[in-house]
Amino acid sequence: MLVQVPGGWNPLLGRLAIDQIPYTNPILAPLFVAVVIGGIILLGLITYYQKWGYLWKEWLTTVDHKKLGVMYIILGLVMLFRGFIDGLMIRTQQVWANGPQSSGVFGAVHGYLTPFHFGQVYSAHGLIMILLAATPLLVGFMNIIVPLQVGARDMAYPYLNALGLWITAAAVALIMISLFVGDFAHNGWFGYAPIFELQYSPGVGVDYWIWTLELTALGTTLGGINLIATIVKMRAPGMTWFRLPIFTWASLSANIIALTSFPALQVALFLVACDRYFGSHFFTAGFGGNLMLYTNLFWLWGHPEVYFVILPAFGMMSEIFPAFSEKPLFGYITMVAASFAIAGVSWLVWLHHFFTMGAGPEVNSFFSVATMLVGIPTGVKVFNWAFTMYRGRITYTAAMLWAIGALFLLLVGGLTGMMLAIPAINYMVHNSVFVIAHFHSMLLVIVYAIFGSVLFWFPKVFGFKLDEFWAKTMFWLFSAGTVLVFVPMYMLGFMGQTRRLDYVFNTAWHPYLVTEEIGIAVYCLSVAAFFVLLYVSIRDRVKNRVGQDAWGTSRSLEWLTHSPVPFYNFAVTPHVNARDELAWRRHNGINEAQPTQYVDIHMPNNTGVAIYIGALTFVLGFALTWRVWWLCLLSLVAIIVLMIVRSWRGDPGYIITAAELEKMEREAMQRQQQVEGHLPHHGGHAVPSGAMAYEGQKVSPLGTPPSSGDHH
Amino acid sequence: MFKKQAKRLALWGGGTLAAVWAGLANAGIFWIFDPKGTMADTNLHYMIIDVVIMGAIVGITALLVIWFMWKYSKGKNRGKYDAHWSHSNTLEVLVWGIPIIAVGFLAYFAVKGTFEINPYNPTVITKHMAPKGDPVHVDVIATDWQWLFIYPQYHMAVANELVLPVHTPVFFRLTSTAVTSGFFIPQLVGMIDVMPGMRTKNALESDRIGVYQGIASDYAGAGTSWMTFPTKMVSKEDFQNWVSKVQTSPKTMTYASFNRFAEPYINVNHRVVYFSNVESGIFDHLMMEVMHGKTWPLPPAMTENMVAYMQKQAAEHRD
């Protein structure tokens, strides 16, 4: 039943052999040495400072949505850096391998990468940037912010949340290990049929690609279920649907897409795996296989995925614009409608990724018009952000600069997207670098929104602001890099340069390729500025500490609790009276009202099961890639046993008593007093009748910490 | 001071780059803006319509945003601040109305254009075809990694070079041996996928003599970057002369020799080969065989560490 693979195979190690380790490769071998040395230093430092216990108890086994979110974001940032290095390698190869006279090193005819190695680099770049950088970064933000915005103590399923993270981490580990053990796929991030079939990709690269995608799809689906359940079932009292903060709405629409579309990807890849492992013919050219079926199935997920990553980014922008315009979001209802319109239309447009397949004009016309429909709600969003600034009082913080940058990139991406939606134009620029420049404009909208959000929500999570000067330096360098890389890329598209060329035949394109390389150098400077930003901000963390409302103009519920957010989020669940709850409370002078009494709260326990299962899914993926069947079986059985054992035992959780809570709250308020210089007090404005600050507690002026009620 | 210098530097740098770019643009390297055939002309026509409409909307929006950014900047007191204003029925109608009208307008052109240059029946060519236009038919086969152009009317084939007469409709049938690729001549005709076991079509017509670059527009494996081919549009007389020349080529092609030709080969040196007396029906024979499961497997040497293979091929070329 199993297919014969070229090269050796043995029952113990599968396809693993010493010659699969590229120790002769002049690029990978030194990198491997550097990684090993870096790893030893890191582990040594953790041991020296005796941080293993802390790491295990506070991070690796945590089910706290904020810590999981932070780890998602760190994972995403690390992969963003890896993806950037891949991008740098792609650009360097193209500027070097330009024209028949260009030199070649390391065995390449031109440039420094052989065709197959180049193929792996851009395939990894695409897969990493979309699924292992943008997705974890956005999931991380949704993890941190959504429960706070709906006034919940944690996600609906804290353990599932940890499981999602560690399965995503397993996917990251799998793609990283493909650098040093075997190859990665060369078939582009989305995969081409039938080039990923065994006849045309006999190595393990495609198998790494399949299992990395499967694991990240699984992790993201679990996260999607959790976020939807949290938003639907965990809202604080008074948080009606149309009081929901806009980022939460965006997260809901995005996760509905994730939950419904990721299974399509998982099935498509499972069929590819059947072809490669069992010799079936789903996507082969012959024996009744249909290679374009794969392309359809992939983009049936792939296009909704695009909106899965852009909708939360739109949500982030919709939070940043009002906060720094000191005004509510313009057209909240239509913004919600627009998010769901985009989510809905996302299902009807997948074929625009391959208008050139040769479908009839009727089919192409349908998908063309459907694609253009996306422009309507997206246009509405842009106008709504503009009118949010209208009659506002705009402060140009670094976060606001990133959001405005995202808006302008969206205009560029929208203009070029409307060009690509028309088949008569698309035929000329499909698969050209024009398309690359277009979707990088769109994905950079996400990156800009993410960096804006890092700056915006950082004080909430860590209790201090990031340095504005370095944040702005980074913004301007990054934007200069964006212009220098992508303006010439758009132009090269009009010159006819197609994508994925490891040798660029036309020397007339050289000045533009050089400009792109300069842009990459400027991007490198912005990466350096980011590290300086982190260093300076952490150095000055005491000076930059903030209170609950870090910006003084924040609007939604997450700014109502302490910064940094305590592990239980809200000591007493707040009662929601209005759409922008904090802005409403500030307006009515009760933004610093504290609860009058505390009650016991129930919290979930930490668990190591999630990280064990994550590690086992990595082992399973690795064993499947190398066809080590006994290890596949072992890890699969172990995963199932762990799941059953965990379900059997469940989690009774633990109780924080009202007294403990009061003590922690008192300390938190003292810290806040140090920052803000006064005790929380009642503003003295007239409070509307019926207003409720906390669940079951009428608004009352407070100068002294509250008593803890009858729980002594 | 530093800021001023940086500004000047940016201006000068930007200006120089713009000048370099503008200079090169005059040389006609913007192939998409410099079409040389009916199909490409039509593509550009629709691009202009779209960019004018969308450019106007996007441009005005950008200016509006910049104006708001300037006017409502905090502490400048240029505009009135209204802490609660967040809704206006008039504006809602406008923000939904403008995109809806624009999309409706563009949708009309999108559908019209899709039919005009439908690769299977491009009405921009077929509608104006003379009853006895004598079109040229070309069967295009993409291999790993070369192009074979079979001229069934003349029983001849050419590898890696396409020669066509002007003022003549040309109809292509396209397929591939092993994997998917794309057929693209930026100044003449847009992209169309070339797939194993499947047949796509395309067409072109040009009245402008010249040499235009052909490209494999989709990734087909290691040799894709070298799958380029010159497309020569020549006068009808020159075309006839060229056909006579190819028809005297000593190399011939049967389905068996085609199979050898289709072995994986990276065309680093851009060799062009002429074949005369080409067996008829190679295209259909190939399609049938691929559908029945024929493949051209790649050895691991051509997909893992390409170094050894590239050296071997380079050595063969020196002979």
Automatic annotation (TrEMBL), chain A:
GO molecular-function terms, A-Z: cytochrome bo3 ubiquinol oxidase activity; cytochrome-c oxidase activity; heme binding; metal ion binding
Identification of the protein by name: Cytochrome o ubiquinol oxidase subunit I
Family, similarity comment: Belongs to the heme-copper respiratory oxidase family.
UniProt xrefs under Gene3D superfamilies: Cytochrome c oxidase-like, subunit I domain
Keywords: Cell membrane, Copper, Electron transport, Heme, Iron, Membrane, Metal-binding, Respiratory chain, Transmembrane, Transmembrane helix, Transport
SUPFAM superfamilies: Cytochrome c oxidase subunit I-like
Cross-referenced Pfam families: COX1 (PF00115)
Organism for this UniProt entry: Igneacidithiobacillus copahuensis
Ranges where the Cytochrome oxidase subunit I profile domain occurs: 50-577
Presence of keyword Repeat: no
Transmembrane segments: 27-49, 70-90, 122-146, 158-181, 208-232, 244-273, 293-317, 329-350, 365-387, 399-422, 442-462, 474-498, 518-538, 603-622
Keyword Calcium in record: no
UniProt-annotated location(s): Cell membrane
Superkingdom of origin: Bacteria
Chief location bin: membrane
A Gene Ontology cellular-component term: plasma membrane
TrEMBL record, chain B:
One example GO MF annotation: cytochrome-c oxidase activity
SUPFAM superfamilies found in the cross-reference section: Cupredoxins, Cytochrome c oxidase subunit II-like, transmembrane region
One cellular component (GO) term of this entry: membrane
Membrane topology of this protein: Multi-pass membrane protein
Domain Cytochrome oxidase subunit II copper A binding residues, every copy: 133-245
Keywords: Electron transport, Membrane, Respiratory chain, Transmembrane, Transmembrane helix, Transport
Residue intervals passing through the bilayer: 9-33, 45-70, 91-111, 170-192
Residue ranges constituting the Cytochrome oxidase subunit II transmembrane region profile domain according to the UniProt record: 24-121
GO annotation terms (biological process): ATP synthesis coupled electron transport
Protein family: Belongs to the cytochrome c oxidase subunit 2 family.
Name of the protein this chain belongs to: Ubiquinol oxidase subunit II
